[in-house]
From TrEMBL:
Keywords: Membrane, Transmembrane, Transmembrane helix. The keyword Membrane applies. One of its GO terms (cellular component) is membrane. This is CLN6 protein. GO terms for biological process: lysosome organization. It holds the Pfam family CLN6. The chain crosses the membrane at residues 62-79, 91-108, 159-179, 186-202, 208-225, 237-259. InterPro entries: CLN6 (IPR029255). It comes from the Eukaryota.
Length: 294
C-alpha cells in the first residue's frame, strides 16, 4: 500500500525491483544536452552575426533558456521513475538551486562569449586580455572579473553541484537482487558513447573535475557496499555508471594530449590540469568570425 502525502503517493515499503531501462528519458536527456548545452557556442559561431546583434540575446542564449527549463523537468521525471522512495526535499532544493545557478551562468556566459567578437581571448585570464587591461578607469576591470566570477565559479557551482547530486540520488535507487540482475539493452549501449562524451565536455569545460571524481568515487563505494548485501546495479544504474567510467578515460586522454601545451599550462596552473575545450578552440583552431574583427 501507499501512504498519501502532499506531493503524491509515497511507498510504504521500498522493494528492490528491477526497473526497465528508461530509453525515452535517457535519449531525450542526451539529445538535449548535446543540442542545447554543447550546441550553444557552436550556434553562436556559425549563425550570421547580423541575425543576433551583439546588444541582443544570441542563438546560444535561447538554447540556454530552453536547457534551463527542459533539464530540470527531465531530472524530475527521472527521479519519479526510481523504484525507491528518494528524499523529496533534497531533490526539490537541488532542482531550485540548479535552475538559479544555470540562470546566473546564462547571463555571465552570454556576455563573456560575445566579448570574443571584440577580440577577447578565452585562453588568457581577464586581466591579461588586451581588450580588458587597457580599460579606463581600471575599476571597470574589476567589473569584468566579477562577471567572470559569476560565470565560471558561482554559476557553475550552483549549476553542477545539484546536477551531480540529483544523479547520485537517483543512482542510489538503481539496485536489484543479484538473481534479478538487469542487463543493458542494445539501445543503452548505443547511448553510452554520446552520454560519456557529453560528460567529458561538461567536466572539462565546466572545470568541475573534483566534483565529478567525488561523485564517481561515491558511486563506486555505494556499488561495493550494496554488492556485500547481495544487490547489483539494474540497467539504468549500469548505464550511468559505465558513462562515468568512460568519461574518466576520455578526460585522461584529453589531459595526456595537451600535457605539454605551454600556453594552456599557464592558463590552468596547479596540480589539476584540465584545459577547457573552448580555450583550446580559441587558441588553436579558429580566429572566430574574421569579419567581426573588422
Amino acid at each position: 500500500p501507499s501512504v498519501p502525502s502532499r506531493h503524491g503517493a509515497v511507498k510504504a515499503e521500498d522493494t528492490f525491483k528491477p526497473s526497465p531501462f528508461h530509453l525515452d528519458l535517457w535519449f531525450y536527456f542526451t539529445l538535449q544536452n548535446w543540442v542545447l548545452d554543447f550546441g550553444r557556442p557552436i550556434a553562436m559561431i556559425i549563425l550570421p552575426l547580423e541575425w543576433f546583434p551583439l546588444n541582443k540575446p544570441s542563438a546560444g542564449d535561447y538554447f540556454h533558456m530552453a536547457y534551463n527549463v527542459i533539464t530540470p523537468f527531465l531530472l524530475l521525471k527521472l527521479i519519479e521513475r526510481s523504484p525507491k522512495t528518494l528524499p523529496r526535499s533534497m531533490v526539490y532544493v537541488s532542482i531550485i538551486t540548479f535552475v538559479m545557478g544555470a540562470s546566473i551562468h546564462l547571463v555571465g556566459d552570454s556576455v563573456n562569449h560575445r566579448l570574443i567578437f571584440s577580440g577577447y581571448q578565452h585562453h588568457l585570464s581577464v586581466r591579461e586580455n588586451p581588450i580588458i587591461r587597457n580599460l579606463r578607469p581600471e575599476t571597470l576591470i574589476d567589473s569584468f572579473e566579477l562577471l567572470y566570477y559569476y560565470d565560471e565559479y558561482l554559476g557553475h557551482s550552483m549549476w553542477y553541484i545539484p546536477f551531480f547530486l540529483i544523479l547520485f540520488i537517483y543512482f542510489t535507487g538503481c539496485f536489484t537482487p543479484a538473481a534479478e540482475q538487469g542487463r543493458m539493452p542494445l539501445a543503452a549501449l548505443l547511448l553510452v558513447g554520446p552520454s560519456s562524451l557529453y560528460y567529458w565536455y561538461l567536466v572539462t569545460e565546466g572545470q568541475i573535475f573534483i566534483l565529478y571524481i567525488f561523485t564517481f568515487f561515491a558511486m563506486m563505494a555505494l556499488v561495493t557496499h550494496q554488492r556485500r548485501k547481495g544487490l547489483v546495479l539494474d540497467s539504468n544504474g549500469l548505464f550511468l555508471f559505465l558513462s562515468f567510467i568512460i568519461t574518466l578515460l576520455l578526460i585522461a586522454a584529453w589531459v595526456g594530449w595537451l600535457w605539454n601545451d605551454e600556453i594552456l599550462r599557464k592558463k590552468y596552473p596547479g596540480v589539476i590540469y584540465i584545459p577547457e575545450p573552448w580555450a583550446f578552440y580559441t587558441l588553436h583552431v579558429s580566429s572566430l568570425h574574421p569579419a567581426a574583427k573588422g
